Amino acid sequence: METIVSGRHFEVDGSLREYAVAKFNRFEEEYGKLTSARLVVSEERGRCIAEGHILGKNMTLNASGRTDAPQTSIDVVFEKLERQLRKRLERIQEHRGPSLSQAEIEEVEAEEPAPEDEDTEVAFTENVGA
Questions:
Q1: Which CATH code is given to the segment(s) 2-91?
Q2: For residue 58, which of 31, 22, 96 has the smallest C-alpha distance?
Q3: How far apart are CA 89 and CA 27, in angstroms?
Q4: What are 52-66's pLDDT values in tens digits?
Q5: CA 47 to CA 54: how far, in whole Å?
Q6: Distance CA 113, CA 109 (A)
Q7: CA dihedral of residues 46, 50, 51, 53 (deg, nearest 10)
Q8: Which of 27, 48, 54, 66 is deepest in the core (most CB within 10 A)?
């Protein structure tokens, strides 16, 4: 996953960059279909603003957080992104039935009764109404 950490009117130091990349790597481990992630940290009027963007297969997630410290702003953004991602993944439905393992197939075959002989006659009755 491509990870970009940048600053807007704000200098992003090495420790803050490593902290953000570690958070994004946790997303990548849990959800494999993410393609890129971007975090923009800025400072306005003494408050730190962090904006996070995650791109994946058929999905774009955006979140922003505003606090006094840059690290807490990043934490707020990642909590929001994680909540959005979890909600999105819960909505996805698997339309295929569960696949049967070889053991389950053998178990089902063992439970089925043996096929009856062809010599057995079946009698049909007709329901005659009055």
A1: 3.30.160.100
A2: 31
A3: 13
A4: 999 988 889 999 999
A5: 23
A6: 9
A7: 170
A8: 54
